[in-house]
Amino acid sequence: MTGQFNNPALHSYLLRLADTSLTMGQRLAEWCGHGPYLEEDVALTNVSLDLIGHANIFYQLAAELHEHPITADDLAFLRDAHEYRNPIITELPKGDFAYTTLKQYFIDVFNVHLYQALSTSSYEPLALAAKKALMEVKYHRKRSEAWVERLSLSTEEAKTRSQKALFDLWFYTPELFETDAAMDELFVQGVIADYTEIKTIWHQQVEAHLQHCQLTLPESGWVATGGLQGEHSEHLGYMLAEMQFLQRAYPGCEW
Amino acid sequence: MVKTVTNHPGSSDSALTAARIYAILAAVKDPEIPVISIQDLGILQHVKLEADKVLVEIIPTYSGCPAMHAIQTDIKAALLQHGITAVEVKLVNSPIWTTDMISEEGKAAMLAYGIAPPLGPNERLIKCPQCKSQDTTLISEFGSTACKALYRCESCLEPFDYFKCHA
Q1: Domains in chain A, start-ordered, CATH in brackets?
Q2: Pseudo-torsion of CA A53, A59, A60, A63, nearest 10°?
Q3: B62 closest CB neighbour out of A53, A128, A143
Q4: Angle ∠(A178,A52,A23) on CA atoms, nearest 5
Q5: What is the pLDDT of residues B53-85, one digit of tens each?
Q6: Does pLDDT of B4 surpass 50?
Q7: B118-155 in b/e burial notation, b at 16+ Cβ within 10 A?
Q8: Do A50 and B63 lie within an 8 Å CB cutoff?
Q9: N or C: which end of chain B has fewer CB within 10 A?
Q10: B113-166: pLDDT as tens digits
Q11: Neighbours of B167 (CB within 10 A)
Q12: Do A50 and B98 touch (CB under 8 A)?
């Protein structure tokens, strides 16, 4: 089934997808009980559930490529920060609602185009997972896109917070489109998406929406990088310490 | 030796046992919408009679649906009550669930329960399940579960869940 593929490369790529969804989902879950109002609290955690569901599917696919028996939970709960492959943007603390919303919008647009492309992957299990996830992330995007507009075109405070979120987040977005040699190889094999193309579409659509929302892009700044190589911000360690505590303290615990 | 039986078992001998299993599983409801069976919701995909066990294949509605574990347990419990102990419930990723898989009976049960069923291809307006008014407003894209959105009826002012169209 997997013989024709460069397995370590595919495994590492599946971890990137899974880690990205899991860290996003975990941050959103932190909103539980803290949403701006009840309905939105429920929405944030429902999006979180979808993302953790996607992570679970990608971890399962990654686990199937292992030589030794390993489960999706092992991959999520027993790897340390330097083994995580998510881009740094997804591990950043949740911030205020404007910050969470804008970050979610950036990821949602990215996910829509990523899963669209992956749904034609030559690796059938990945294509199937992407097709399922695509239906859900399209809905996420509809919601976050409307919220970015609603916040940035409303009160002064909401507008100020949205603009600040954009300044804080913008230079974390280039990392979403980073590839490494292994991913380039997978692309040649038709297994993964064309990240250059996704980057072009993402910029067109996101920049048009931000302009419509009267938000200003920062002109220049440092650019975040390193997640793909396992080099993370300090925030991931704290997140994993909390998320993995139970499995680390009570190995194999189920409830 | 594996015999595959689809959602609509016929009357041949091999299907009789499968038909019995389907009849038992008709009592297994969605834990979050307890008026609709997993078969009417489209979650129950196949029953396979294998040499040593009954294999039941189910598909998830949404990727992160937390009810899947409860559904697996409920299937085993329902079959156990009828003395069927060798059961494997497998969560499969194919086919991909859509709201088109919900049966007409399922949609009717949903509506009677107070949840507006997903819109059909030629429908545009979400009707209030209580007073049938078409004057309704979206309150939140997500309701009490991932598969529903929250609406309010502007005529009778009742809030209600809408089972989102997912296809």
Answers
A1: 7-249 (1.20.1260.10)
A2: -170
A3: A53
A4: 45
A5: 999 999 999 988 888 999 999 999 999 999 999
A6: yes
A7: bbeeeeeebbbbeeeeeebeebbbbbebbbbbbbbbee
A8: yes
A9: N
A10: 999 999 988 888 999 999 999 999 999 988 888 889 999 999 999 999 999 988
A11: 12
A12: no
pLDDT at B16: 52
3-state DSSP percent of chain A in helix, strand and coil, to 5: 70, 0, 30
- Domain-wise residue ranges, chain B: 3-97, 100-163
Task: Provide the mean pLDDT of chain A.
Answer: 94
Reported CATH class of domain B3-97? alpha beta
Instruction: Give me A141's structure tokens.
Output: 């995007």
Which residues of chain B have a CB within 8 Å of the CB of A131?
A: 96
Interface check for B167 against chain A (CB to CB < 8 A): the answer is yes
Distance CA A75, CA A242 (A): 16
Q: Which residue, among B98, B114, B121, B112, has the nearest Cα to B162 in the 3D structure?
A: B114
Q: Nearest Cα to B44, choosing from B32, B31, B64, B30?
A: B30
Q: Report, as an integer, the average pLDDT of A90-102.
A: 98
Least CB-CB distance to B63: which of A39, A40, A54? A54
- How far apart CA A195 and CA A184 sit, in angstroms, is 9
